[in-house]
Amino acid sequence: xxxxxxxxxxxxxxxxxxxxxxxxxxxxxxxxxxxxxxxxxxxxxxxxxxxxxxxxxxxxxxxxxxxxxxxxxxxxxxxxxxxxxxxxxxxxxxxxxxxxxxxxxxxxxxxxxxxxxxxxxxxxxxxxxxxxxxxxxxxxxxxxxxxxxxxxxxxxxxxxxxxxxxxxxxxxxxxxxxxxxxxxxxxxxxxxxxxxxx
Length: 198
Hints:
Blueprint: H1 3-16, H2 25-37, H3 54-70, H4 75-97, E1 105-114, E2 125-139, E3 142-149, H5 151-168, H6 170-197
């Protein structure tokens, strides 16, 4: 998937979810720009490995979310960190659909796609979701086989849903995370107080 797509499509999905009503448009633009930056591994490091792995696209945003919750940051910073998690993880996810082998079938394929667990594991994974039309047309010198559903088409549909649904409930997700975090802090303090008393 090209970088322009990774910039424009999440913005469209976020605006469709109307998160710009409670969160500044600059937050959406900033997260979209950061999302495109992980494509730098096409030029620096190992392609679709150095920045496309779960440690960069999932773990770093989760750490940022925990920091914003811990520091009782402003609402827009919490929104930024959650949107960043949504955009980055979905970027890697849709890239897994963009390079499956030709041919019908559904499943996870090793060898192409994204190195999800790099640097711990150098194996590349892609998702094949090609549902072919059994009719083959021979147009000399090419053989044409159609797809009812292609991996890329299905991946783009899921990409839109993965961005849209969390964005629709972004403020609810932030509120639940704040409540759970406060309860966790409270329980942790009580646990350590009781531990020190004993």
